[in-house]
Amino acid sequence: MIIAIDGPAASGKGTLGKRLAQHYGYRHLDTGVIYRAVACALMQSGHDLRDEAAAVAAAMELDPATFGDPALKSQKAGEGASIVSAIPRVREVLVDFQRQFAANPPGAVLDGRDIGTVICPDADVKIFVVADPRVRAHRRTMEAKARGEAADEAVVLADILARDERDQNRPVAPLKPAADAYLLDNSRLDIEGGVRAAIDIIEAVRAGRPRG
Questions:
Q1: Could you confirm whether domain 2-205 is CATH 3.40.50.300?
Q2: Could you report the per-residue pLDDT of 102-125, keeping only the tens digit for each?
């Protein structure tokens, strides 16, 4: 089974993806980490984030062993990921990696922004997670502070709104729910509530029950 989870920044899709993978015994891929890794590689080498040739080269040389680097969780890496992910050739290089991950047994949960629409359009279950931008900004600010980073919630909110604008209006694979995706509003749900809601959706699909 392939479970595709999409949604904007800080909507809770990453945490949801990890928990669902644990629940079902599937592998999990936070596809945003791939783009964050490309952005960090560019920043570390001194290249402009919009340098297409350098970005494509970085994408082709990615080492999955680096995906656990704490630097990939920083706000700067997230901002950079939103920029490099808008480069069509970078996306082309990384599509095969993601599809291969999804195809391997016993099953996979992938979260990102174009999983249900581009990467895995035939996924068994598609969930599109949303949350109010102010709620997302608060969560992201608390996460940064928990890591010991300084974070201004107003600045984080402005960044989230800017990223939403870029992601929703980019010419290639814009952020949008697949036609057959289930909408999960995470604004007022805690982690456990969100996980339960997602499991309810998945189990309804597996049981062949009609969409609610």
A1: yes
A2: 999 999 999 999 999 999 999 999
